[in-house]
Design brief:
There is one protein chain. The protein starts with 7 loop residues before the first strand and ends in a 53-residue tail after the last strand. With 317 residues, it is mainly β. The chain is 3% helix and 31% strand. Strand 25 and strand 26 form a beta hairpin.
Length: 317
Protein backbone atom coordinates (compact mmCIF):
# COMPACT_ATOMS: atom_id res chain seq x y z
CA UNK A 1 0.00 0.00 0.00
CA UNK A 2 1.18 3.61 -0.53
CA UNK A 3 1.87 4.16 3.19
CA UNK A 4 4.71 1.61 2.95
CA UNK A 5 6.56 3.92 0.55
CA UNK A 6 7.02 6.70 3.09
CA UNK A 7 10.40 7.64 4.53
CA UNK A 8 8.97 9.47 7.56
CA UNK A 9 5.64 8.45 9.10
CA UNK A 10 3.57 10.38 11.64
CA UNK A 11 0.44 9.06 13.30
CA UNK A 12 -2.59 11.24 13.98
CA UNK A 13 -5.57 10.14 16.05
CA UNK A 14 -8.93 11.62 16.83
CA UNK A 15 -9.44 13.36 20.18
CA UNK A 16 -12.31 15.05 21.91
CA UNK A 17 -11.10 18.33 20.40
CA UNK A 18 -11.16 16.87 16.89
CA UNK A 19 -14.67 15.50 17.26
CA UNK A 20 -13.74 12.06 18.54
CA UNK A 21 -13.78 10.44 21.94
CA UNK A 22 -10.04 10.81 22.60
CA UNK A 23 -9.26 7.10 22.34
CA UNK A 24 -7.38 5.03 19.79
CA UNK A 25 -9.37 2.20 18.27
CA UNK A 26 -8.15 -1.14 19.59
CA UNK A 27 -7.62 -2.58 16.12
CA UNK A 28 -5.38 0.24 14.89
CA UNK A 29 -2.26 -1.66 15.93
CA UNK A 30 -0.35 1.56 16.55
CA UNK A 31 -0.56 1.76 20.35
CA UNK A 32 1.34 4.73 21.76
CA UNK A 33 2.96 5.65 18.44
CA UNK A 34 0.57 8.54 17.89
CA UNK A 35 2.44 11.81 17.74
CA UNK A 36 -0.47 14.19 17.02
CA UNK A 37 -4.15 14.60 17.77
CA UNK A 38 -4.76 17.21 15.04
CA UNK A 39 -4.23 16.80 11.31
CA UNK A 40 -3.56 20.52 10.85
CA UNK A 41 -1.01 20.56 13.69
CA UNK A 42 0.76 17.49 12.32
CA UNK A 43 1.05 19.02 8.86
CA UNK A 44 2.29 22.41 10.07
CA UNK A 45 4.74 20.89 12.55
CA UNK A 46 6.34 18.51 10.07
CA UNK A 47 6.38 20.70 6.96
CA UNK A 48 9.55 20.25 4.92
CA UNK A 49 11.41 21.60 1.93
CA UNK A 50 11.59 18.51 -0.26
CA UNK A 51 14.63 19.86 -2.10
CA UNK A 52 16.68 19.25 1.08
CA UNK A 53 15.62 15.60 1.24
CA UNK A 54 17.17 12.58 -0.39
CA UNK A 55 15.93 10.79 -3.48
CA UNK A 56 12.49 9.24 -3.10
CA UNK A 57 11.71 10.97 0.21
CA UNK A 58 8.01 10.81 1.13
CA UNK A 59 6.29 11.90 4.31
CA UNK A 60 3.11 10.13 5.42
CA UNK A 61 0.44 11.12 7.91
CA UNK A 62 -1.58 8.07 8.98
CA UNK A 63 -4.97 8.75 10.50
CA UNK A 64 -7.14 6.89 12.99
CA UNK A 65 -10.70 7.84 13.87
CA UNK A 66 -13.20 10.48 12.76
CA UNK A 67 -12.03 14.07 12.76
CA UNK A 68 -14.65 16.81 13.02
CA UNK A 69 -12.86 19.89 11.73
CA UNK A 70 -14.10 23.45 12.13
CA UNK A 71 -11.56 24.91 9.70
CA UNK A 72 -10.55 23.50 6.32
CA UNK A 73 -7.46 21.28 6.52
CA UNK A 74 -4.85 22.46 4.01
CA UNK A 75 -2.45 19.79 2.79
CA UNK A 76 0.43 21.88 1.54
CA UNK A 77 0.98 24.99 3.63
CA UNK A 78 4.62 25.15 4.68
CA UNK A 79 5.75 22.36 2.34
CA UNK A 80 7.90 23.37 -0.64
CA UNK A 81 9.41 21.87 -3.77
CA UNK A 82 7.58 18.52 -3.92
CA UNK A 83 8.16 16.32 -6.96
CA UNK A 84 6.63 13.17 -8.37
CA UNK A 85 9.17 11.20 -6.32
CA UNK A 86 9.02 13.38 -3.18
CA UNK A 87 5.58 14.14 -1.81
CA UNK A 88 3.03 14.15 1.02
CA UNK A 89 0.84 11.10 1.68
CA UNK A 90 -2.39 11.24 3.69
CA UNK A 91 -3.63 7.74 4.46
CA UNK A 92 -5.51 5.72 7.05
CA UNK A 93 -3.51 3.85 9.66
CA UNK A 94 -3.39 0.07 9.37
CA UNK A 95 -6.79 -1.41 10.18
CA UNK A 96 -8.57 1.95 9.71
CA UNK A 97 -9.37 1.65 5.99
CA UNK A 98 -13.05 1.93 5.02
CA UNK A 99 -12.66 -1.02 2.59
CA UNK A 100 -15.47 0.36 0.48
CA UNK A 101 -18.01 0.79 3.26
CA UNK A 102 -19.05 4.40 3.90
CA UNK A 103 -18.89 5.32 7.58
CA UNK A 104 -16.60 2.43 8.46
CA UNK A 105 -13.15 4.02 8.33
CA UNK A 106 -11.08 7.08 8.99
CA UNK A 107 -12.98 10.25 8.08
CA UNK A 108 -12.51 14.01 7.95
CA UNK A 109 -15.85 15.71 8.48
CA UNK A 110 -17.16 19.22 8.87
CA UNK A 111 -20.44 20.97 9.56
CA UNK A 112 -18.98 24.46 9.20
CA UNK A 113 -15.82 24.62 7.03
CA UNK A 114 -16.00 25.59 3.37
CA UNK A 115 -14.43 22.22 2.62
CA UNK A 116 -13.11 19.64 5.13
CA UNK A 117 -9.96 18.77 3.15
CA UNK A 118 -8.14 20.71 0.46
CA UNK A 119 -4.83 20.10 -1.26
CA UNK A 120 -2.39 22.75 -2.46
CA UNK A 121 0.92 20.81 -2.61
CA UNK A 122 1.84 19.26 -5.96
CA UNK A 123 1.95 15.45 -6.22
CA UNK A 124 0.11 14.88 -2.91
CA UNK A 125 -1.46 11.42 -2.48
CA UNK A 126 -4.75 11.01 -0.59
CA UNK A 127 -5.61 7.37 0.10
CA UNK A 128 -8.25 5.29 1.92
CA UNK A 129 -10.08 8.07 3.74
CA UNK A 130 -13.60 9.50 3.80
CA UNK A 131 -14.65 13.15 3.77
CA UNK A 132 -18.09 14.59 4.49
CA UNK A 133 -19.64 18.04 4.60
CA UNK A 134 -23.16 19.17 5.44
CA UNK A 135 -22.76 22.87 4.65
CA UNK A 136 -19.60 23.29 2.55
CA UNK A 137 -19.23 23.88 -1.16
CA UNK A 138 -16.87 20.90 -1.58
CA UNK A 139 -16.09 17.80 0.48
CA UNK A 140 -12.55 17.18 -0.83
CA UNK A 141 -10.89 19.59 -3.24
CA UNK A 142 -7.58 19.75 -5.06
CA UNK A 143 -7.43 23.53 -4.98
CA UNK A 144 -4.27 24.19 -6.98
CA UNK A 145 -1.87 21.21 -7.09
CA UNK A 146 -0.31 19.57 -10.09
CA UNK A 147 -0.64 15.79 -10.39
CA UNK A 148 -2.34 15.06 -7.06
CA UNK A 149 -3.60 11.48 -6.71
CA UNK A 150 -6.76 10.31 -4.96
CA UNK A 151 -7.13 6.59 -4.32
CA UNK A 152 -10.04 4.85 -2.55
CA UNK A 153 -11.48 8.17 -1.35
CA UNK A 154 -15.19 8.29 -0.48
CA UNK A 155 -16.65 11.80 -0.31
CA UNK A 156 -20.16 12.92 0.61
CA UNK A 157 -21.90 16.28 0.22
CA UNK A 158 -20.95 19.57 -1.42
CA UNK A 159 -23.15 22.33 -2.79
CA UNK A 160 -20.81 22.87 -5.77
CA UNK A 161 -19.01 19.53 -6.02
CA UNK A 162 -18.30 16.55 -3.78
CA UNK A 163 -14.84 15.75 -5.10
CA UNK A 164 -13.32 18.63 -7.06
CA UNK A 165 -10.10 19.75 -8.70
CA UNK A 166 -8.78 23.04 -9.99
CA UNK A 167 -5.27 21.63 -10.45
CA UNK A 168 -3.65 20.12 -13.54
CA UNK A 169 -3.10 16.41 -14.21
CA UNK A 170 -4.91 15.12 -11.13
CA UNK A 171 -6.01 11.47 -11.10
CA UNK A 172 -8.92 9.87 -9.21
CA UNK A 173 -8.90 6.08 -8.87
CA UNK A 174 -11.48 3.89 -7.08
CA UNK A 175 -13.19 6.97 -5.65
CA UNK A 176 -16.84 7.66 -4.88
CA UNK A 177 -18.63 11.01 -4.97
CA UNK A 178 -22.17 11.10 -3.64
CA UNK A 179 -24.96 13.42 -2.57
CA UNK A 180 -23.73 16.71 -4.03
CA UNK A 181 -24.11 19.05 -6.99
CA UNK A 182 -21.42 17.10 -8.91
CA UNK A 183 -19.93 13.81 -7.75
CA UNK A 184 -16.64 15.07 -9.21
CA UNK A 185 -16.20 18.58 -10.54
CA UNK A 186 -13.21 19.82 -12.53
CA UNK A 187 -12.55 22.92 -14.58
CA UNK A 188 -9.28 21.54 -15.96
CA UNK A 189 -8.88 19.59 -19.19
CA UNK A 190 -6.26 17.22 -17.79
CA UNK A 191 -8.14 15.41 -15.02
CA UNK A 192 -8.43 11.62 -15.31
CA UNK A 193 -10.93 9.44 -13.54
CA UNK A 194 -10.55 5.64 -13.28
CA UNK A 195 -12.94 3.10 -11.70
CA UNK A 196 -15.01 5.73 -9.91
CA UNK A 197 -18.68 5.70 -8.93
CA UNK A 198 -21.02 8.71 -8.88
CA UNK A 199 -24.43 8.28 -7.30
CA UNK A 200 -27.21 10.39 -5.82
CA UNK A 201 -25.91 13.70 -7.16
CA UNK A 202 -27.53 16.38 -9.30
CA UNK A 203 -24.84 15.73 -11.93
CA UNK A 204 -22.68 12.63 -11.88
CA UNK A 205 -19.33 14.16 -12.82
CA UNK A 206 -17.57 16.71 -14.96
CA UNK A 207 -13.94 15.97 -15.84
CA UNK A 208 -11.87 15.62 -19.00
CA UNK A 209 -11.64 11.83 -19.17
CA UNK A 210 -13.43 8.85 -17.65
CA UNK A 211 -12.35 5.23 -17.95
CA UNK A 212 -14.07 2.28 -16.27
CA UNK A 213 -16.45 4.54 -14.35
CA UNK A 214 -20.08 4.04 -13.29
CA UNK A 215 -22.57 6.90 -12.95
CA UNK A 216 -26.20 6.28 -11.99
CA UNK A 217 -29.12 7.76 -10.06
CA UNK A 218 -28.10 11.36 -10.66
CA UNK A 219 -31.06 13.68 -11.13
CA UNK A 220 -29.75 15.71 -14.10
CA UNK A 221 -26.79 14.18 -15.98
CA UNK A 222 -24.45 11.24 -15.43
CA UNK A 223 -21.47 12.66 -17.35
CA UNK A 224 -21.27 16.37 -18.17
CA UNK A 225 -19.58 18.42 -20.92
CA UNK A 226 -18.91 15.60 -23.42
CA UNK A 227 -15.80 14.00 -21.88
CA UNK A 228 -13.51 11.44 -23.51
CA UNK A 229 -12.68 7.92 -22.29
CA UNK A 230 -14.04 4.39 -22.62
CA UNK A 231 -15.43 1.34 -20.79
CA UNK A 232 -17.92 3.34 -18.73
CA UNK A 233 -21.60 2.84 -17.85
CA UNK A 234 -24.43 5.30 -17.28
CA UNK A 235 -28.12 5.25 -16.55
CA UNK A 236 -28.63 7.94 -19.20
CA UNK A 237 -27.09 8.01 -22.69
CA UNK A 238 -23.94 9.96 -21.82
CA UNK A 239 -21.25 7.41 -20.92
CA UNK A 240 -18.30 8.20 -23.21
CA UNK A 241 -16.53 5.58 -25.32
CA UNK A 242 -17.18 3.00 -28.01
CA UNK A 243 -17.00 0.16 -25.48
CA UNK A 244 -19.19 1.89 -22.90
CA UNK A 245 -22.73 0.83 -22.02
CA UNK A 246 -25.54 3.40 -21.78
CA UNK A 247 -29.11 3.33 -20.51
CA UNK A 248 -28.38 0.74 -17.84
CA UNK A 249 -31.01 -0.16 -15.27
CA UNK A 250 -29.46 0.11 -11.79
CA UNK A 251 -31.50 -2.77 -10.38
CA UNK A 252 -30.00 -5.00 -13.09
CA UNK A 253 -26.46 -3.87 -12.31
CA UNK A 254 -26.11 -4.10 -8.55
CA UNK A 255 -26.73 -6.73 -5.92
CA UNK A 256 -29.15 -4.52 -4.01
CA UNK A 257 -29.55 -1.11 -5.58
CA UNK A 258 -32.41 0.08 -3.36
CA UNK A 259 -30.58 -1.19 -0.27
CA UNK A 260 -27.29 0.42 -1.27
CA UNK A 261 -25.20 -2.70 -2.03
CA UNK A 262 -23.25 -1.67 -5.13
CA UNK A 263 -21.43 -4.94 -5.70
CA UNK A 264 -22.02 -6.03 -9.28
CA UNK A 265 -24.48 -8.73 -10.22
CA UNK A 266 -23.28 -11.64 -12.33
CA UNK A 267 -24.93 -10.24 -15.47
CA UNK A 268 -24.09 -6.57 -14.87
CA UNK A 269 -23.07 -4.48 -17.87
CA UNK A 270 -20.10 -3.19 -15.88
CA UNK A 271 -18.78 -6.71 -15.28
CA UNK A 272 -15.95 -7.74 -17.63
CA UNK A 273 -16.60 -4.61 -19.68
CA UNK A 274 -13.36 -5.19 -21.57
CA UNK A 275 -9.67 -4.47 -21.68
CA UNK A 276 -7.30 -4.05 -18.78
CA UNK A 277 -7.28 -0.71 -16.98
CA UNK A 278 -3.90 -1.36 -15.38
CA UNK A 279 -5.35 -0.68 -11.92
CA UNK A 280 -4.29 -3.58 -9.70
CA UNK A 281 -6.71 -3.23 -6.76
CA UNK A 282 -10.33 -2.21 -6.27
CA UNK A 283 -11.78 -0.02 -3.53
CA UNK A 284 -11.75 -2.93 -1.05
CA UNK A 285 -8.05 -3.50 -1.86
CA UNK A 286 -9.04 -6.73 -3.64
CA UNK A 287 -7.01 -7.70 -6.71
CA UNK A 288 -8.66 -7.00 -10.06
CA UNK A 289 -8.57 -9.66 -12.75
CA UNK A 290 -7.31 -9.16 -16.30
CA UNK A 291 -10.79 -8.55 -17.72
CA UNK A 292 -11.55 -5.45 -15.76
CA UNK A 293 -14.95 -4.42 -14.36
CA UNK A 294 -16.14 -0.81 -14.47
CA UNK A 295 -16.61 1.00 -11.20
CA UNK A 296 -14.74 0.77 -7.90
CA UNK A 297 -15.82 -2.79 -7.05
CA UNK A 298 -14.35 -5.78 -8.88
CA UNK A 299 -16.95 -8.53 -9.20
CA UNK A 300 -16.66 -11.22 -6.55
CA UNK A 301 -19.12 -14.11 -6.48
CA UNK A 302 -21.52 -14.08 -3.51
CA UNK A 303 -20.46 -10.56 -2.53
CA UNK A 304 -23.93 -9.49 -1.39
CA UNK A 305 -23.83 -7.60 1.87
CA UNK A 306 -20.16 -6.65 1.53
CA UNK A 307 -20.64 -3.64 -0.67
CA UNK A 308 -20.75 0.07 -0.08
CA UNK A 309 -23.96 1.35 1.45
CA UNK A 310 -24.76 4.39 -0.65
CA UNK A 311 -28.12 5.64 0.48
CA UNK A 312 -29.16 9.05 -0.82
CA UNK A 313 -29.28 11.42 2.12
CA UNK A 314 -32.86 12.29 1.35
CA UNK A 315 -33.84 8.65 1.74
CA UNK A 316 -31.57 7.78 4.63
CA UNK A 317 -33.21 6.56 7.81
Amino acid sequence: MPRADATDVFYVRETAESGGDGTVDADSGEGSAYAYDSIATALSSEAVDFSTKGAGYKIAFLLTGSFLVTSSVNVGTGFSNPTSAKCIIIDSAAGQEHLGVFGDGTSIDSTSAAWPLYITADYTEINNVETTTTTGSYSCIALSPTAAKFNQVISDGGSTGVLATFGDDCVYTNCIGRNGAFGLYSVENTTDCLHCLFHGNTNGARVAQFDYCVSVDNSSTDYAVSPTGDHNTSEDAQAPGANSVINVTPTDEFVDFSGGDFNLKTGASAKDIGGDSGVALDITLTARDSTTDAGPFEFIAAASGNGLILLNQANAL
